[in-house]
Amino acid sequence: MSRRLGIFLFIFILINLLFIPILSLYGLRVCPVLSIPGFGFGCYYSGIYIFIANLLNGILIFVVHSNTKKKGPMLNWIQQNTMVAYAVAYFISTLVALVSLQILLNMNHLSSQSRAPEILGLASLLLGILQAYGLNWALADAAVKEEDNPPPAFGKLWGSHVFRTMFPLIVISSVILHFLISQSISFNEGRTAPVASHDGLIEQTSYVVIFMLAWLLLTFTFHFLSEKDHVIRLQDHLDHLKKLDFKFRSNMHQAWGLWAALLHQLNLFSKILGERNQLLKSFSRFVSAGVAREALKGEIKESNGVVREITIIMSDIRNFTAMAEKLSPQQVVVLLNEYFTAMLDVMTGYQISVDKFIGDGILAYVEPYSEDSTNVNSENRLAVEASLEMLRRLRQLNNKLKKMVLPEIKIGIGVYRGSVVIGLIGSETKLQHTIIGDTVNRSARLEGLCKDLGVAIAISGSVWNSLDKETQSLFGSHGLQTVKGIAEAIEVYGGPI
Questions:
Q1: Per-residue CA distances from 181 to 19, 22, 185, 188 (Å)
Q2: How far apart are CA 426 and CA 406, in angstroms?
Q3: φ, ψ for residue 493 (rounded to 5)?
Q4: Could you tell me the domains of the chain?
């Protein structure tokens, strides 16, 4: 049994016991022989009534709570109306207890007061409502598998939310009014009144009103504790969303009113974001993360592409053809997978977009910060830093390959900045998002110069000029280089030195 449930049961049993003397003030005499001692407040008969009512109530609550996790038409109704089910459980219990009490009195040739059903009915109403509000709070932390069934409309839930908040106040006002009217009628008509004078009526009324207000305060306490639980659930869910935890789901057990709608919408929101995030991750395995995001937003359209100025990285494994001839096909696949995994890890860390694999080569580019390319220096620096990190990671990879009895890898990297066309290339049946232009060719030519110049990284003069002094010092000038397929010579810097 949870701590909450223990607290509620203690309070509820205490309220049950206190109801006997309060009912006597109201005008109920269930004990015709007050000299008979009993185990409840009042007498033997009231004790029997309390025992039967609470025993049946406990059994029915257990049945209701046990069936909140099962399936079936009636069980589905119980799951959606647990507060009503708890209240009905108490009403049924008190009805059976009242009938049992009447039978017991008749068997002993005693008669209960004629107002007993009326007054005990009112008492059952109050205790049933208290039980519904209290158990809704006490059992709110029970874990239940969530369903995707949508809750009712917000307007309907708002109405039920307001009704639930105001219902105890409506009930208590009605009960107090009923008490005052019944006492006044009984006094004025000369019946056997529960009080002997107007002063006595005022005194007894004050006791009843104080008790009713205490009941109202207790009921509202459970109500607002339940509200607090939902506020905490809401905040907890928002905190998980802030941490990009899209697998988290709020427990909607005992959720009611607008809280049920809000928590359902948050769970649905997390589910949609999780699916979108998973789709983005899966899509990013085939295209760059930036392209995947654009595709999900519907921003990629079949057109002639857009012209952008970007910084390109072209890398290639040296002497790969000769190396592959000495290896089995399985070893070649293992070697390439290890290499691509290491290099793509670097690209991801530096937010470099991989356009495609060309055999053993990698064509990548720095995702433009903006269409007007005002961050040239930042993009060039990012490309060069990523290239240097690729070399550092390659040294670690070669140590691993040595243990796997695979040959050492050497690579060349070319970095060039210029204008390209970014867009969809292909036919209606198959499209590929890629970059095309002379800049791609120039970066490939720079990579090809690495072997001739004896360097691992070759960058253009414009890229070198945009770097900070410390990074520039890592590269030496190789002057103007003439490369195949390009008319004018390219200023080249090689490194690291």
A1: 20, 17, 6, 11
A2: 37
A3: -120, 135
A4: 3-140+147-261 (no CATH), 300-495 (3.30.70.1230)
User: Residue 36 pLDDT > 80, yes or no?
Assistant: no
Specify the amino acid at residue 34.
L
Both tokens of residue 203? 């005194």
Residue environment code for 131-167, b if the CB has 16+ CB neighbours within 10 A, otherwise e: bbbbbbbbbbeeeeeeeeeebeeeeebeeebeebeee
* Three-state DSSP class for residue 209: helix
Q: Round to whole Å and give the CA distance between 415 and 442.
A: 9
Lookup result for tokens 């995994």: 341
> Does an H or E element contain 383, and which?
helix 376-403
Q: Name the pTM for this structure.
A: 0.50
Q: CA–CA separation, 236 vs 151, rounded Å?
A: 21
Taking only the tens place, the pLDDT of each residue in 430-480 is: 777 788 899 999 999 999 999 999 999 999 999 999 999 999 999 999 999
Rounded distance between C-alpha atoms, residue 68 and residue 82, angstroms: 8
Two tokens at 205? 């009324």
How far apart are alpha carbons 468 and 210 in whole angstroms? Answer: 80
Q: b/e for 282-299, b at 16 or more Cβ within 10 A?
A: ebbeebbbbbbbeeeeee
Tell me which DSSP letter residue 150 carries: P
Q: At what angle do helices 116-138 and 154-188 cross, to 10 degrees?
A: 150
d(CA 126, CA 188): 27
Angle between helices 329-349 and 376-403 (to 10 degrees): 140
Long-range Cβ contacts of 205-213 (<8 Å, 24+ apart): 205/179, 205/180, 207/22, 207/25, 208/22, 208/25, 208/26, 208/176, 208/179, 209/176, 211/18, 211/22, 212/126, 212/172, 212/175, 212/176, 213/172
Instruction: Decide: 409 and 319 in contact? Cβ < 8 Å.
Output: no
